Each structure stands twice: as C-alpha cells, then as structure tokens.
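Title: Prediction job returns without error message
Component: structure pipeline
Severity: low
Priority: P3
Assignee: unassigned

Description:
Job completed but the reporter wants confirmation the result is attached to the right record. Sequence as submitted:
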Amino acid sequence: MDDYSTKIKISAEHLIRKEFPEKALELDKLVSSPVLSFSEVSKIRTEFQLPTADDIIAHLKNIKNTNSTDDYHNSTSVVNNNNSGSTKKHKIDSNDTMDSSESSTYEFNGTVPSNRLISILEDKLRPYILHFLDSVAIIKLWIQLMIPKVEDGNNFGVSIQEDSLAEVRTIETEVTQYIDLTCKYLISRGELIKKVVKYPHVEDYRRSVQSLDEKQFVSLRFIALELRNHYTSVHDLLMKNLEKIKTPRTNQIHSLY
C-alpha cells in the first residue's frame, strides 16, 4: 500500500507541475485558432440533403404523369380489344391502382449526416475533458492521502487541504456536465431532423437545426475556454499551496491563497 501511495503522490505532482500547464497552453492555442473563431459560424450553417417543398412538388407531378400515362395505355388496350370483336371486359386489379393518399406521400430514403464541423470540434475537445476528469481523480486522492490524522495542533493545515479538495471537486462537477451537453445536443438535433423530414415545407424547422448547430459551436468554444481556465486555476491553486498540502504547518498561521 505504501508503494501505491507513493505512486499516486508522484503522479499527482507530475500532473500539477507539468501536464496541467501544457494542457492549458494547448487549449489556449486551440481557442485562438481559426477552427474556433466566430468567423466559422457561417460555415456551421450547412445545407441538409433533405426533401424541400420543390422536391415534393416534383414528386407529385411525376406520380401524376405516370398515372396519366397508365390510364392512356389502359384505355387504348380496351379500345383494341373491342375492335377485335372480343366481348370480354378488361378488368383492372385493385392492386394495380394507387391510392390517392399514397401517391401524395413523399418518402425520404437516405442518411442525414451530423454537422461535420461540430463533430470535428467535439473530437478535439473530448480528450481534454476525459484527461481532466481522470487527472482530477488522482489529485483528489493525493490530497486525501496528504491529510494527517485528526489530532490537536494540525487543524489549520488540514483546513487548507480540505479547502483545496473542495475547490477541485467543484471544478470536477462543472467539467462532468460538458459530457452531457454533447449528448443532449445530438438528441435535440435528431428530433429536429425528424421534423424537417416530416414537414419539409416548413422553413422554420430547417432554420432551427441551423440555429442549434450554431448554439453548439458557441458552447464548444465556451467549453474550450473553461477547460483552459480550469487547468490554469487548479495548477495555480495547488502550486501556491503545494508545501502546505504536503506538510501542514501547525506552528504558524497561514491563509489559503
């Protein structure tokens, strides 16, 4: 168990001193890059490969023309049969005729892709979210292992450790919510796409999908900014109080930075 505790302490200090500053700089570079620039918002409004009102009109015209052609051939066939002297009536099976409600239905057959730019940004940010949550789990355990046994004379040192631990837990809760954000976006977008397919003549449904994509883009930019700030703030907090966390002082009064 002592070896395991030592491993946790080494890993936590490496994260605080080395990896957190590196991740903060990487995210700062990402936020400043063109891929997360607000100039990219116009590109988020991608066109959908979905039926439009014009598609429906063309579809109905095609059905009407097809039916007209079939009726012409059927009538010609009856006339030819009568001219040949045959008294047998030409019967048309009910299955050969198309119900009017079916002929006016437009069916969309195909795949509706996700917003490509949004998917790229999600793939870029997901590793940072997972790395932060994994790292925070190690750091929390490290702080917990540093807390001395409860006895008179070390309460102040313990309070610094407890305050640092509480701050890290608060940030962890915020970052965990970023994962739910992506899931909720995908579900909402899927429901809107279903509306667009069902009511292609309603332009507001199309615009609502585009607006949702823009909102997700802004949210992803916000996540990148917040992750950068969280990496920076946790690094700053723990580095300023590193010695007090590792060796709580009982003979002097200090305050948490």
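Comment from assignee: result matches the submitted record. Residues 85-105 have pLDDT under 50 and may be disordered.
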